[in-house]
Every structure is written in C-alpha cells, then in structure tokens.
Design goal:
With 486 residues, this protein is an alpha+beta fold. It has 10 helices and 14 strands. The chain starts with a helix and ends with a helix.
C-alpha cells in the first residue's frame, strides 16, 4: 500500500513537469518570429513506483518539431532554385546587352543588327557613287560604329563571365565560412547532449546554416549517433564532426584551364551538380568557344554548350568573323582609288591570335582612298561595293545545319535567346513553386502557432494548479491524521 508521502511525490512531480512545460511554451512564443526556429515539444512519461503503482510523471525530453525528410527535400529544391535563378538572371543580362527585344518585331534602332544593317547600307550608297569621298568616309564611319557596338557587347559578355568566376569564388568562401560554423556547432551540441542538456536551439542554428548554403550546391547531410552531422558535396566531405575541410577555386574557365572547385584535403575536384555554383561554373566555361577560320565558312553554329554566355559569344563571333572574311576577300581582290591592289578591310588587333570577336579592328592602314570599290581602279567601277552591299543576303551562315542569310541567322540567334530565356524563367517559376510547397509543409510542422501555444499554456497551468490542490489536500489529510494520533 502506498503511503501518504508517495502522494506528495506524485503531486510535486506533476507540478514540476508542467512548470517546465510552461517554460517550453513560453520559449516557443518568444521565438515565434525567429528565423529557422523549430517549435519545441515536451514529452511526458509516467513514473512507475513499487509494486507497479504509479509514482507520478516526469518531463522525459524536449524534442524539436522537425522532419529530416522535409529538410532534405527543401535543400534539394533550394539548390534547384539557386541554379535556375542564376541561369535566368544571366540570360536577362545577355538580352539587355543585345538591346534587341524592345519592340514587337524583335528589332530596335540601336541594336547590333541595326548597326550591321547600317554598315551594308553604307556600301550600297557607295555603289551608287563609287568616287564620292563622302560615301567612302561613310563606309568607314559605319564600320567603326559596328565594331564599337561589337566591342561594347564583347566587353559586357567578358565582364559577365568574369563576374561568374568571382561569384564562384565568393560562394566557395561562403561554403568554407559556413562549414567552420557548422563544425563548431557540432562540437557544442555533442558536448551539451553528452551531459543530457537540451541543445535544440543550437540544432536550429545549425540547420539554418545548412539551409542557407543549400542554394549554392548539392548537399548531403547525415546525422551521427552523437548528434553531430556530416555534410558532403558530391561525395566529398565538407564537414565531418568537428572538422571542416578546405575548398578552393582553380582555373580561369578557358578550354585549357577550366574553372573547378577543388577539395584541397582530398586532392580531388568536387562534383557540383546543382545550385548557383553549378550555374556560375557553366557560364564561366569557355570550352564552347571555337576559333572560326576562313576555311570554316559557313560555320555550323550549334547552341549545345551548357553556358549561354559561350553560346552567345560563339554566335556573335560567327557573325563578325564571317563578315570580316567575306569583306576582306572582296577588298583584296580589287583595286583602290590610287590604282593599288586592295588591302584587307579588317585585321586582328593581336597578330599572334586569330581573327575573333575580341580581336578585330579596321585596318589601321585603311583610309577612304584605299577602299576598293571595283577591280579596275576607275572611279566609276562599283562592282565590288555592290557585291559587299549584298553580302547580308548571301547564304554564308548555318544554324544547326541549316544554311541561311545574315538576317535569318540573326533572327535565329534572337529566337534561341528568347526561347532559352523563357525556358529558364519557366523553370525558375516551377522551382519556386516546388520550394514553396516543401517549405509550407515544413512550416506547418515546425512553425510556432500562437493559438496552439496559448492552449497548451492554459492546459499546463490547469494541471499545475490541480497538482497544487492535490498537494494542499494531502497537507490537510496529514494534519488531521496527526491530530487524531495526538
């Protein structure tokens, strides 16, 4: 038979357990707006006494309302969103560079296509009056305007690529810094929980850090029995227990020296398969850019590179080098106004490198008298000027194996850019929706509900008060017993 004193113990246990539960609810309420905070729940357990009789209750543990499956899904979808956010933003930048998507018909007054058209129009004007100094100077001015526009776009594309390299470096630095913080939290959590001290708040901080870097790359997170987590990227450890490992960027993105993320401690390249780092690595990659020689014309352009910057660079490289080779071919076959053999209209800036989008200029030796309008040298001969004026209608371009003229080729490029941009934007929207769905599921489990916490507080308060009344009743019974026994 249980003594009256066991009743005291039972009542006190109810009061203490529910007092602690009130503290947990108060903690939840105070962190209702704390980013990354997971609602904490109390788990009560029955205390068994002698002979199997109940001996009250105890607060067995405080748990976090957290689902590792939802966490994994969130981080996977967040990496996907990071990838498509970057791809979509880069495509928008390229579209703005070309300045071609401003009007309903896909053209503008200031875009690259317009200055190329102006260049050929200037040759058409010269063909009507081959001896005109004004028309000859207009050809040089139009060529300069075209190359100025090419140089501007080239500089912007180059800067965009350099920005991608910088952002990979910044992201790797962020991974390193966060990895060190996670390793520190791992040790703190292990030490606290080894002493049976609740470390849920530290676990929240750790999960928040992992969530933040999940947009950068594909992460795998595994929790160990001691409460520490291991974080890896493509099978290469980033964090193991209380240790973090070094990552560095190597290469410049060129075909000879591709940009990679390198794990120093494991002497291997990290396989990045998702996240914004993956997108930046693709856009920094220049392996899709090939030299186009005169013998390669018509060059069969494909947009199969994963990097849209490289695809656009090669497309513009195709236009510029093809036109330069074609104009030079006709110019060197003619005779200038001085009666001398014609010279190349376009030359390289750096003679050690082939003619290319970023290595082209008007021949420094060229002036209006050295422009060849015909093959006889006579001022009335405009046969070459007329042929050059019609180059934009010649089928000297290919896109995915289909031969076409300059206008159709350029429209194919603009169409590809627009379609690719729409695809990236659609993928971004879809990924945003998926991430929101997963996050909504996580929040429905982990977020603090003020209504629920207020209900819990009333329940815990009532139980505490009831336990206190039991204790008061036992005091009265004990007092009566003592009085009866004298």
């Amino acid at each position: 038979m249980s003594s009256i004193f066991s009743g005291y113990s039972i009542a006190v246990s109810g009061m203490m357990a529910n007092k602690d539960a009130l503290t947990v609810s108060s903690h939840n309420i105070s962190n209702v707006n704390t980013a990354g905070y997971s609602r904490q729940r109390t788990v009560m357990a029955e205390v068994k006494g002698a002979c199997g009789l109940g001996a009250g209750t105890t607060l067995e543990e405080i748990t976090r309302a957290r689902d590792q499956y939802l966490d994994r899904n969130y981080r996977r979808e967040n990496a996907g969103l990071g990838y498509w956010t970057t791809k979509s933003a880069n495509l928008t930048d390229i579209q703005e560079m070309l300045n071609e998507l401003q009007s309903d018909d896909g053209t503008s007054d200031s875009g690259l296509q317009q200055v190329i058209t102006d260049y050929f129009d200037s040759w058409d004007d010269l063909a009507t009056d081959a001896g005109s100094m004004e028309s000859r100077n207009a050809v040089l001015a139009a060529a300069k305007a075209m190359l100025d526009m090419v140089g501007q776009i080239t500089g912007q594309l180059s800067q965009l690529r350099r920005d991608c390299i910088t952002k990979v470096e910044d992201a790797v630095d962020e991974l390193q810094d966060t990895a060190r913080k996670i390793a520190t939290l791992n040790l703190q959590i292990k030490q606290l929980e080894a002493r049976d001290v609740e470390a849920d708040d530290l676990r929240d901080q750790r999960d928040q850090l992992i969530d933040e870097i999940s947009s950068l790359t594909n992460l795998t997170v595994n929790e160990q029995a001691d409460g520490m987590v291991d974080v890896s990227i493509g099978g290469i450890p980033l964090v193991q227990g209380e240790s973090s490992f070094s990552l560095v960027c190597q290469g410049d993105g060129s075909g000879d020296d591709p940009l990679t993320v390198y794990a120093v401690d494991f002497d291997t390249t990290v396989r990045i398969s998702s996240g914004s780092i993956k997108a930046y690595l693709e856009e920094a990659d220049q392996t899709g850019v090939a030299v186009i020689g005169e013998a390669d014309i018509p060059y069969n352009l494909t947009t199969g590179s994963a990097g849209n910057i490289s695809n656009m660079w090669q497309a513009l490289n195709d236009i510029v080098t093809t036109l330069a080779y074609k104009v030079n071919e006709l110019q060197t076959a003619g005779v200038d106004a001085n009666g001398d053999a014609g010279i190349a209209f376009f030359t390289t800036v750096d003679a050690t490198r082939p003619l290319a989008l970023d290595n082209i200029q008007i021949n420094p030796e060229l002036d209006y008298n050295k422009i060849s309008t015909g093959t006889t040298g006579e001022s009335e001969d405009s046969s070459l000027a007329a042929q050059i004026a019609e180059l934009d209608e010649e089928d000297c371009f290919q896109f995915d194996g289909l031969t076409m003229d300059l206008d159709n080729f350029y429209q194919k490029i603009i169409s590809w850019l627009g379609t690719t941009g729409e695809t990236a934007e659609s993928a971004y929207d879809n990924q945003s929706t998926l991430l929101l769905q997963v996050d909504t599921q996580r929040q429905s489990l982990s977020a603090v509900s003020l209504d629920e916490e207020m209900s819990n507080m009333i329940m815990y308060q009532n139980i505490y008060s009831a336990s206190a009344q039991v204790l008061s009743l036992l005091d009265s019974l004990t007092e009566e017993l003592i009085e009866e026994l004298g």
